[in-house]
Design goal:
This protein is an alpha+beta fold. The chain contains twelve helices and twelve strands. The strands form two sheets. It has a six-stranded mixed sheet with strand order 10-1-11-3-6-12, covered by helices on one side. A six-stranded mixed sheet has the order 5-4-7-2-8-9, with no helix packed on it. Helix 7 packs across helix 8. The chain starts with a helix and ends with a helix.
Amino acid sequence: MDALAGLLDGPRARGAFLLRTVLDPPWALRIEDRAPLSVVALVRGDGWVLPHAGDPVPLRSGDVAVLRGPDPYTLADDPSTPPQAVIHPGEVSTTPDGSALCDVWDLGVRTWGGNPDGSVLLLSGTYQLDGEVSRRLLSALPPLLVAPQSDLPLVPLLAAEVAKDEPGQEAVLDRLLDLVLISVLRSWFCRPEANAPGWYRAHGDPVVGRALKLLHGDPARQWTVATLATATGVSRAALARRFTDLVGEPPMAYLTNWRLTLAADLLREPSATVASVARQVGYSTPFALSTAFKRVRGISPSEYRTTA
């Protein structure tokens, strides 16, 4: 498992809010749903995305935008077009003056807008991520990134599946949305302007990349610098120096932080216990996990579960 896959493997889309929006110019949608992460694909037509801070960015047919919340943003045919609809938390939509729009603009299964045959087709997917793994990923993203003229075959497939109402459809849509997101992020992190985090850039190093795959693939193993160095074919000193230079922290510090990040996410599961989570992330006893968790995060795992 590589670093990006590891970050996306925990809190994947679970009942994500997906919607086809069909419109004719002039149009503008104000998004105030406070979602941590949104994916917007312009399947047909042209438009603009106006972030909370920063200049408007044009969107062309085929572009995919990823927006990191919770700041609001606007989608429009032109930056000067005033919003016609406001999207609030809880999938509630209104006019700017507060009148309900959900039923008025309802065009069928997961389809919404002012004209069923509109010249503009937007596809929106919203993640409601609140796990620690998600925060680590979100911290690596800019508020807005746009993958231009995406030729992903997944986008038209997702657009077609959104309008279906079949058994298991929610699971199908969640996985398709995940694939679209991963594909866009993988492409984005490879671009020079992305300023990818150290853990992602290090993935391309033959030594440190191998070490990261081992740590992410089996975090519960009782790793030491020595066993990790043996597995990667270098000396302990060489691994420690190279890992720290590329990732920004020593191997065992990275492993500790990764284990506790996984633990924080696992603790949100209703059936999880401190003991079961400790075993999954490499701590021999619940006490050992509690000690490390409290040292790093300031509260015990039990207290974290209650507040989470």
